[in-house]
């Protein structure tokens, strides 16, 4: 009987997070800070402050990334445990950010830079936390 109560409590908490995370009428902002970076050389502290901000407008069902270069509309995908944002740059590079309900986040850059005829892959990943406003 104790396990059933715990399972019901867990499911109830999960559903309350989903309602709070997804069913808001007002825009939601996530301010994210990424102090750790991983690249081909390994994991290290980010040399510079790296922050991203995401704005989700539930009424228009649109999301925007606000960065140091400006604001761009991004694709947002909600799932049972958080939300992901996908940006496709003007050159076709793909950047993704995922934020859990616990507000832990990862931002991945899948960048191809010019290098000869085939280009060169320059992947990087940033790990951090977000504040929901």
Report on this model:
- This protein starts with a helix and ends with a strand.
- The chain is α+β, with helices and mostly antiparallel strands.
- The protein is 16% helix and 56% strand.
- The chain has one helix at residues 2-22; strands spanning 28-39, 42-45, 51-57, 62-66, 71-79, 82-88, 94-100, 104-113, 120-132.
- It has one domain (25-132): Beta Barrel (Porin), CATH 2.40.160.
- It contains one helix and nine strands, in the order H-E-E-E-E-E-E-E-E-E.
Helix and strand topology:
Elements: H1 2-22, E1 28-39, E2 42-45, E3 51-57, E4 62-66, E5 71-79, E6 82-88, E7 94-100, E8 104-113, E9 120-132
Give the % helix: 10-25%
List the domain count as a whole number: 1
CATH topology: Porin
Q: What's the tally of helices?
A: 1
Can I get a quick summary?
By secondary structure, this protein is an alpha+beta fold.
Which terms would index this structure?
Porin, about 130 residues, 9 strands, alpha+beta, 1 helix, about 15% helix, single chain, globular, disordered N terminus
